[in-house]
Amino acid sequence: MDIPDWMRWAFCVFAAVQLIFVYRSVQLLRRAEPGRRTDPWLAVADGAVGVVMSVGLALGSFDVLVGAGAVLLAIGACKGIRALLARRAAKPAPAADGGAVPAGE
Questions:
Q1: What is the DSSP string of the chain?
Q2: 99: three-class secondary structure by DSSP
Q3: Backbone phi, psi, residue 60, to 5°
Q4: N or C, which end of the chain is more exposed by having fewer CB within 10 Å?
Q5: What pLDDT sits at residue 33?
Q6: DSSP code, position 36
């Protein structure tokens, strides 16, 4: 890929900023309870793969972008599935006595 030099430096700066967010995510992961560590792990993995993608863009490596993009897609799918399952679990169950009444009664 032909990327201008100023854009390469911008991607390097962006990767450095992302490293700060990865460090913050690791700190949150360390404080998480043992049963609630999946979301922080996904946040750390998302940030780490984001750093790899930024460095891949800075270096102009198409192979790194394809590999990191596939991993980032899998992480995003896991996050989405977990969000859907959490939303479904948070819905209240319908009341048992508030259902439809048969016509003959």
A1: ----HHHHHHHHHHHHHHHHHHHHHHHHHHHS-GGG-HHHHHHHHHHHHHHHHHHHHHHT-HHHHHHHHHHHHHHHHHHHHHHHHHHHHHSPPPPSTTSPPPTT-
A2: coil
A3: 75, 30
A4: C
A5: 85
A6: G
- Residue owning tokens 């949150």: 28
Q: Report how far residue 88's alpha carbon sits from residue 39's, in angstroms, rounded to the nearest whole number.
A: 17
Q: Which residues of the chain have pLDDT under 70?
A: 1, 93-105
Q: How many CB atoms lie within 10 A of CB 58?
A: 19
Cα separations (Å) of 12 from 3, 41, 77, 83? 13, 24, 27, 31
Q: Judge if pTM exceeds 0.85.
A: no
In a 10 Å sphere around its CB, with 0-12 CB exposed, 13-18 middle and 19+ buried, how is residue 96 labelled? exposed
> Can you tell me the distance from the alpha carbon of 84 to that of 78, in angstroms, rounded to the nearest whole number?
10
- Which residue in this structure is represented by tokens 């016509």? 103
